[in-house]
């Protein structure tokens, strides 16, 4: 029995040198079924790239959506992170936060656009993340609105510092964000304390909407785990890829 066509995929591993971070950064690039260099593709950029591929199964899910839901094929770029410095890079109070934002916007995006036929407008780029990856994705959009206006946030860790930054914004009518949070995430232990992710996400949703952002928001039964996010990932992707 031959494997389903959506499992026939190409995942390319690349490494680039970051001047901003002064280190190498690994990328995983998913090329969709029927990939052709003469075409151009929308692109999804993922924080925690290794986890999105291994635990989120995003490559398999993308193939299913492209084949079964007949959505437009898209490229996925997973940006890997060293877990030991993840909070330093992803949290606004982190020591490497500014450098990471600059690396993403000024080094990773040009590298991908030089090497792959991805589209180069903000409405053809989606930036995705889970937990702190969700909040840093939003921070990237706020810092570089000409690059990103579409954010996919899975249980975003919108700590008070993040909400303070959002509160400084006056007009977010250009922003389109898909937010998911699990109802069992009310008492979650992180490396910086215990947080109620449901309350954090509700407050962030209200903050974003009060500034004119388009917010697609859902609360579902689920814990702060990839098992939950993987199940919900297709719905979040379809939000951006369904006309």
TrEMBL record:
- Highest taxon in the source lineage: Bacteria
Which InterPro entries does this entry report, sorted A to Z? AB_hydrolase_fold (IPR029058), Esterase-like (IPR000801), Mycobacterial_A85_antigen (IPR050583)
Q: Which SUPFAM superfamilies match?
A: alpha/beta-Hydrolases
A Pfam family matched in the record:
Esterase
**Protein name as catalogued:** Enterochelin esterase
Organism, scientific name: Paenibacillus auburnensis
């Amino acid at each position: 029995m031959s494997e389903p066509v959506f499992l026939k995929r190409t995942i390319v591993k690349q490494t680039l040198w970051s001047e901003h971070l002064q280190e190498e950064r690994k990328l995983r690039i998913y090329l969709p079924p029927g990939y052709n260099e003469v075409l151009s593709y929308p692109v999804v950029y993922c924080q925690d790239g290794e986890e999105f591929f291994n635990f989120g199964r995003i490559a398999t899910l993308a193939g299913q959506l492209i084949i079964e839901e007949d959505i437009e094929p898209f490229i996925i770029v997973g940006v890997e992170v060293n877990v030991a410095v993840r909070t330093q890079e992803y949290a606004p109070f982190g020591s490497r936060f500014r450098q990471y934002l600059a690396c993403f916007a000024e080094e990773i995006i040009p590298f991908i656009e030089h090497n792959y036929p991805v589209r180069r407008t903000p409405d053809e780029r989606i930036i995705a993340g889970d937990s702190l990856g969700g909040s840093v994705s939003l921070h990237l959009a706020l810092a570089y609105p000409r690059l990103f206006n579409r954010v996919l946030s899975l249980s975003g860790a919108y700590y008070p510092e993040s909400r303070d930054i959002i509160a400084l914004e006056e007009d977010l009518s250009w922003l389109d964000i898909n937010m998911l949070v699990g109802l069992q995430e009310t008492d979650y232990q992180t490396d910086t304390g215990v947080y109620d992710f449901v309350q954090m996400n509700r407050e962030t949703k209200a903050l974003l909407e009060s500034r004119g952002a388009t917010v697609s928001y859902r609360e579902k039964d689920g814990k702060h785990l990839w098992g939950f996010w993987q199940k919900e990932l297709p719905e979040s992707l379809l939000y951006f890829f369904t006309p």
